[in-house]
Amino acid sequence: MTKRRLAAGIGAFLLLIVTAQGAGANTSDKPKPNGRVLIISLPEITWSDLTQRDAPTIRGILDQGAVGGLTTRTITRATALTEGYLTVGAGTKAIGTGLTPILLASKGAGLEVGEKFGTGTAADAYEQRTGQSARQPIVYLGIAAAIAAQQEETYDAKIGALGDALKRAGYNSAAIGNADRTPSKSAAPEYERSLVTALMDSHGQLGGGEVGSELIEANAKAPFGLQINIDTAVSAFDDAWKPRSVVLVEGSDLARVDAYRNVVSPKQTLAITRAALRRTDAMVKKMMTKVNLERDTVIIFSPSPPSTTIPLGVAGMAGPGIDAGLLRSATTRRDGFVQLVDIAPTVLTQLGIKIPETMNGKAFTVAQTDMDANARRDFLIDSDQASQFRDSMITPVAIVFIIMIALLVVGAIISLNRPNRNQLRNLLHFGSLFTLGFVSAVYLARLFSFHQTSKFFYWLFVVAVAAIIGTISLAFYRRRANDDMLIALGLIVVIIGIDIITGGNLQFNNAFGYSPTVGARFSGIGNIGFSAISASTVIFVGFLVNRLGNERKFSRGVIIAWMILAAVLIIDVAPMFGGDVGGIIAMVPAFGLTAILLLGGRVQLRMRTVVIGALVTIGALTIMAAIDLTQPKGERTHLGQLIERVQNEGLGSFSDVVLRKLNKNIATFTGSVWVWMLPIVLGFLIYLALQARPQLRAITARTPELRASFIGFAVLAILGYGFNDSGVIVPGMMLGILGAVIIAQLALTASSSGLEETLNPESEPLRR
Q1: What proportion of the chain, given as a percentage, has pLDDT over 90?
Q2: Assigned domain for 584 exists
Q3: Which residues span the membrane (predicted)?
């Protein structure tokens, strides 16, 4: 409780900018008369699976509507089927922890009330677990566990929010599907009817449909010997497809295929997937004879990824007023990409029903209507392949970067103990420049489609570009000292800065960026990008002021440095560019402190200084939030959306967000390879402070302005870690850049003669 109050207190500043704007979606509160929505669920299906041969009907619906790549991530990336449906029903990310597949708390136990369950019926079991009578034909026996799971993990998902909203508006809800893997009469039936959770109300009850054993039939050639009875499913659909209704139809055979893939060969997996998809398409074809796309809406989606990989799922929507194009939503702010949490708001928007305040998802909108159907499909398949390529490279790239820093550290320690080894010093100097160039090279690699070639060519490009940057930087150093750092660090700042201004395409699907399958960010600047550009900038300006001269208080170098700090800050935090909330909190005090020190000011660590820094940061955060709120709801960043939540739900929602991010932050200590960067670089810095203090002093004697940069860097790294849910990844990247810079400087001052010269420089020390 203390943590919650503290987090709520930190969030009090939000009240300064909360305006009287209305909550919810931009829809009318009046339901559309006789509106209907058909939701087609294709478990574990990707865009590559939907060939014209196997799914002509489904492809036809998607081709005439708007489509997108669906991020199926809920709380974790490996979303289970139950979590996917729970998320759809809540309109916000839901957790499935605690919903075990055993009989007493079956995660997929959505049963018809008259079905036998244990020694009684499903209705009896439901009443035993909830204390309520089963008043509707279908009940979900895991409702109590589902609600408890959200509360125990501080997730604010309201289970059944979509079903409640539809019921209040007078709409009928129905689900048709059965993905059981055993006959219901078996000794230990294994239920998989999670689709019920997408449309059930908050009591775990659903008004109609068919999920019982009558919906499946035996087929010895099908996975688990079971398949959907298409005629029964179509008949159930005909009964449910009434005016003012929402019907969810699941391709349940597809769910059984995925559960079966671990016991069959890859070739056979493809064969049974295609067979299940053809049967699902045949079922949809019969149902579509009762659907009129001039007045009915059809939504197609994948509720969960395959169990072996985590690709983008399928999302599509066709119906009245929906142009053919790419889907997007305010949760992604990127054309062609939407999330599971957006489905419930989309259903309600199509029916003209107000979106509940508890839903964090946003309704689908349509963009890029100038692309034809084949171009849209090719784009989504290519994006999925690029995303999976990125996800496969993120850890290897990080490991290579960490190993390079570790090798530089070892070499630097050897060099410090053997100062006359000039070849080693030269190698360390170039290696440091190569390592800084590696960061730029990883971003530049996104200019090319390496996911369509091979990892060999990717690595060849990255190494070659890093070597070129290192060589060019070294050539500039030979012309004038410190120009090597200006080139190597400046390229990182320029490449990331221009990329963010132009849409963040180099961040997207980048090993040092983000991907839609991870689903944490789709636009703006990622946390690794923030780390790289902010750390590079704060060190770069120190070298720049030294290069341009710092003879007087407001010298040209100081003024230009201030302008660069301000420009990078705006690029990182402005809602129309980076939209980085954590960046504001870290960069404002760090950059401000650096600017003051470069001017020659003195800053003492006192409570007054901390308070002033906090107030300035809050002021900057308030300004950015106010700017964000002037944007259309569909374009607002995390900050604007958070303020909307505080408007709707109070400061308690803010404290929940803070606690969740804190938990993610702490989890990175055990779940990220970046944690190794901390002992490597911090241990090296401690070694320098204890064993090589003269060489360490020589660095700031040679370039006095670096004192300001190093102090600003310390503030940046500490606050960057504390206010980003990426945790150790943020200081990990920052320390990697700092380590490369320091080792390069040590290499230039390692000899005894060079050390003597740098400890008695002609240049004036930094003003105080």
Answers
A1: 58
A2: yes
A3: 393-414, 426-444, 456-477, 486-504, 524-545, 557-577, 583-603, 610-627, 666-690, 706-723, 729-748
pLDDT at residue 584, rounded to an integer: 86
Cβ atoms within 10 Å, residue 498: 11
Q: How far apart (Å, rounded) are the C-alpha atoms in residues 192 and 216?
A: 12
Same domain for 393 and 246: no
Report the C-alpha dihedral over residues 51, 52, 53, 56, rounded to 10 degrees: 120
Whether 105 shows a pLDDT value over 50: the answer reads no
Question: How would you write 248-307 as a 3-class SS string?
Answer: EEECHHHHHHHHHHHHCCHHHHHHHHHHHHHHHHHHHHHHHHHCCCCCEEEEEECCCCCC
Residue 370 lies in a domain: no
Q: Report residue 535's pLDDT band, with 50, 70 and 90 as the boundaries.
A: very high
Closest CA to 33 of 347, 354, 352: 352
Domain final residue, candidates 312, 330, 362:
362
pLDDT at res. 25: 35
CA distance 445 to 454: 13
- For residue 393, tell me if it sits in a domain: yes
Task: Give the per-residue pLDDT at 249.
Answer: 98
The helix (H) or strand (E) run that includes residue 701 is helix 693-702
What is the biggest distance separating any 2 CA atoms in the chain, rounded to whole angstroms? 92
Buried-exposed string 702-721: b where 16+ CB fall within 10 A, e elsewhere: bbbbbbbbbbbbebbbebbb
Q: Which two tokens stand for residue 271?
A: 């064969």
Residue 400 has pLDDT above 70, yes or no: yes
In the predicted structure, residue 563 carries a pLDDT above the cut 50: yes
User: CATH code at 286?
Assistant: 3.40.720.10
Using one digit for the tens of pLDDT, what is the confidence trace for 9-26? 444 444 433 333 333 333
Do 52 and 96 fall within a single domain? yes
pLDDT at residue 597 greater than cutoff 80: yes
Tell me the C-alpha to C-alpha distance, in Å, between residue 68 and each of 87, 325, 398, 522, 563. 18, 9, 30, 13, 40
Question: How many structural domains compose the chain?
Answer: 2
Residue 188 has pLDDT above 80, yes or no: no
390 and 297, same domain (yes or no): no
Same domain, 654 and 685: yes
Q: Give dist(CA 506, CA 498) in Å, integer.
A: 10
Predicted confidence band of residue 656 (pLDDT cuts 50, 70, 90): low
Would residue 18 count as lying in a domain? no
Whether residues 417 and 339 fall in one domain? no
Q: Domain limits at 559?
A: 383-758
